[in-house]
TrEMBL record:
Gene3D superfamilies, per database record: 3.20.20.220
Designated name of the protein: Proline dehydrogenase
EC number: 1.5.5.2
Coiled coil: none
Catalyzed reaction equations: L-proline + a quinone = (S)-1-pyrroline-5-carboxylate + a quinol + H(+)
InterPro entries: FAD-linked_oxidoreductase-like (IPR029041), Proline_DH_dom (IPR002872), Proline_oxidase (IPR015659)
Group of enzyme by EC: oxidoreductase
Protein species of origin: Colletotrichum fructicola (strain Nara gc5)
Described purpose of this protein according to its UniProt entry: Converts proline to delta-1-pyrroline-5-carboxylate.
Residue ranges constituting the Proline dehydrogenase domain according to the UniProt record: 15-346
Any one Gene Ontology molecular-function term assigned to this protein's record: proline dehydrogenase activity
Amino acid sequence: MYNHFCAGENQVEVTSTISEIKRMGFRGAILTYAREIVVDNRTEEEVGKGMLESKNETEVEKDSGIEAWREGVLTTVEMVGEGDILALKLTGAGPAVSETLSSGKPLPKQMVEALAEVCSRAVERKARIFVDAEQIKVQPGIDAVALGLMRQFNTNGRGAVVYNTYQAYLKGTPDVLAKHMEIANNDNFVLGVKLVRGAYISSEPRQLINDTKEDTDDSYNSVASGLLSQRYRDFGKGGGAKFPELELFLATHNKQSVLAANELQQSRVEMGQPLTKIQYGQLLGMADEVSFGLLQLADITAKEKGAKGMAPTEVYKCLSWGSLGDCLSYLLRRAVENRDAVSRTKSEFSALKTEVWRRLKSTVSP
């Protein structure tokens, strides 16, 4: 299971995996250091591999959890290249950071300095940064950190370098996104939006989650459509607020969602309408029929309309790296998400056959 879902335990293994991803036609890799803390909201218990069990106020200044996170993430930065994306899981820095995120207190100075160092190094390597969504207990704190980084790095001349992650399975997400769009307008930065359905359903308070999967699908597709159409809530509508500078990354395994988004984007190209930059991503080891299907669709569209008549279709694979212990929580979430894997096997097999044929044709074509 580790080899199927994780990129490797060291730099040699990870860079080899990334090279293979790009060789298959993907735009790049989203790489994250897997270490994290998981909070069970039903018991308030924190669990995490390699984390310190407790921390008093005098110890926070020299927190070994933050330093271990800093070293691990800086190692991760050196594995990504131009066009790749570094994903940050803030709770991986240990209980001191997790506590400040959940309480609304400022991050420890040591963590602020670590984030500045990590983000600056990623920019030097021409990589972007995703701030991962986590459990609702810490999410408001994570949002505040992400918005602060966007103010610093997402200038109008540079575009979205830092993205925040929005989970469509939470009832409050559409309102949170609208608030962040207002902040981006007021503070004059480009809002980076990574849209996911969510992966913490087993440990979140049930009343905060959409009542049905269909509700989550509707929320996801509605947000994506609104951002691509540049008409979301009152933003972009006559008499409403200005639609902010915004870039969108759809991280989803849902074939209908990505096809609908791609179709909408291509139709806006044909009609000469303003575009929101969009890219797509799926996890390593999952939804290959979606990933390869997008690559194949891009090939078909390019042949039919030519490169100038289409919006670019750029697809990424999301990879986690670390020891088995570091990756344990990540692997458990993948196991939950793969409960319906059997139902997808036939479509994945068909997609893989088509992808093999696509590569063979590209090899022999003049």
